[in-house]
Amino acid sequence: MANNKIKQLWAAGKPAVNGWLAIPNGFSAEVMAQAGWDSVTVDLQHGVQDYLSMVTCFQAMQAHPVLPMVRVPWNEPGIIGKVLDGGAYGVICPMVNTVAEAKAFVSYCKYPPMGARSNGPIRAGIYGVSTGYQKTANDEVLCLPMIETAEAVANLEAILDVPGIDAVYIGPSDLGFSMGLIPILDREEPEILKIYDKVLKETAKRGLSAGVHCGSAAYAKKAIGMGFKLVTINNDSGLMLGAARAALSEVRAS
């Protein structure tokens, strides 16, 4: 398995900027991959992607130097193993709220003896023939549990202490929702920013990284300044809609 570009950036102290694919189409994935993202994540949870469209997106992005990742729909071994077999280099897992759930997630991502992932990298193994995919997969695959509930925040330190966790990924919308706030991305509430500070402090203490989903480039820049090492800017459908609205507004304003 080839070296993980995101792990290399983090080891050098640099942040990574992540794209996000909700549209199940190879051509749109190919276009997004040309933008210069460090990684691009196919969203199987809330977009309209499915497993085969994920593979199509991976194939379309193959010619470009972006790291393919996936947000799986749930913390379940079948789909986690399949996205890794399909070529994902990182797995973002939603709603990881307890130590037990974090340990289960890692076990689904890792081959024995670190975990219980079943052997069969049908597509991923093709691109690891020279090095032996199984020899390095445990070291190269990124495991990113999502911190997006008040329960997860309460268990944060214990979750971060689970061996095999590389980073945590904050879902601001669900995090705020779980605390009685409206579900939005670019949050400024003092109680949420306090949680961000806690996540950044506790990950840094352990030599881990923290990621956050942002609604805008401006907030992504702010998040990097705060110390986040992985920032996602909106998603493909949101960026397309925003650009279309801006173009129309400019023309109609004249």
**Name of the CATH first level:** Alpha Beta
* Alpha-beta content class: alpha/beta
- Provide the gyration radius in Å: 18 Å
Unreliable spans are none
Instruction: Say what the CATH topology is.
Output: TIM Barrel
What percent of residues are in strands?
15-25%
Biggest β-sheet description: 8 strands, parallel, barrel
Average of the residue pLDDT scores: 97
Largest sheet: spatial strand order: 1-2-3-4-5-6-7-8
Number of helical stretches of at least 4 residues? 12
Distance between the termini: 54 Å
Along the chain, the helix and strand elements come as HEHEHEHEHHEHHEHHEHEH
Which architecture per CATH? Alpha-Beta Barrel
How would the blueprint of this fold be written?
Elements (H helix, E strand, L loop, with lengths): L4 H7 L4 E6 L4 H8 L5 E5 L7 H11 L5 E5 L5 H9 L4 E4 L5 H11 L23 H8 L1 E6 L2 H5 L1 H5 L6 E4 L1 H7 L11 H16 L3 E6 L2 H10 L3 E4 L2 H18 L1
Parallel strand pairs: 1-2, 1-8, 2-3, 3-4, 4-5, 5-6, 6-7, 7-8
Helix pairs in contact: 2-3, 4-5
